[in-house]
Amino acid sequence: MPKSVRRFLAFALAVCAVAAAVASIRARNVSVVDMLDRYAAGKFESVVAELAGDLNFATILKQLEEQGPAWIDAAGPAAREKRRLVAATFALEAARVDAWYEWKWIVKQPYMGPAGEGFQPLNVLVWQPPPLLIEWACKLMRADETPRPIERWWHFAAIAVAQRSEDPHFLVGDPGIGRDVGGGEIINRQDEIKHLDHVSKRFPEEMRFVLAQGIARDRVWRDDATKAYGALASDPEVGAEAMMRMGVMQFRMNRDADALKSLDRSDAMTRDPYIVYLSAFVRGQILESQERKDQARAAYRRAVQALPHGQAATLAFANNLFQDGRRAEAQELSGAMLAADPLPLDPWREYVHADDRFWPFFVGKLRAEILK
Q: pTM for this one?
């Protein structure tokens, strides 16, 4: 074996060892079988509270892989489907709890060869427990040749968790393809998960999964995102959000005229406060950049009416009023926002997390099915 290859493999193994050591720092003893029993009995909140403690999620994943199948079969054929749902939903809850602590590592490899004569291998992708928990559960849910209705809701929830991670890599593949080491391109493409490929095969007619394809691509593969959003332009369920997201993407590309047209289409299709707020806020930003202050003010007012105390639109509206000399109105508006309790999550701040806003509803559907 060439010396450079041995060095590469040794470094990759060292990275994995360090990852395991870091995970072990958070470890304490946990019985996944006990947690599955309690989750199946409807003790959802206590299990999630335990997951939020000082746990080693690599251990949770390992126990699920080793003990999960036996636990699913232990109650006999009549209970197997429900136990599969319990295990898959528990894994999803665990993934969501841990997702903001660890998700993946993109590891740069050492430069090989003499200075100026060698090369730097592509980066190595190392998945952490949360995406692996989702994929372990996804295989459980795909065990039936024909999807059960509850599987659709499980995938909605899984995509919400993945979008909350802000990682398109897990959903659609390497966003650094062709960009070399500095652009994050990986060498171990065989380890890609591409979760949305699994979902689309199971539910090819579900337009929300098509929308997820666009959302995953609109920062790195904008031509593909444009196609995905455009295909949904007239869809009665997700067309308004697709056009709003198209408008936001065009706004970020400095294509203001196109963005306004997309936002017009979105506005004509929906009264959803989330979509109306984002469309109106971005419209206000565009109009303000064009020195159309009065029209921008009207857009910000519409956003604040859709979601009172939304921070991005409220502050933009107050600033617009202040610049127009209407200082008392600006102060009253911003003061009411600061006094709001609870302060609502701002859709603009949460924009990248997409369907995570539906998590309580999705997981509620899954829990209700478990309790039947």
A: 0.88
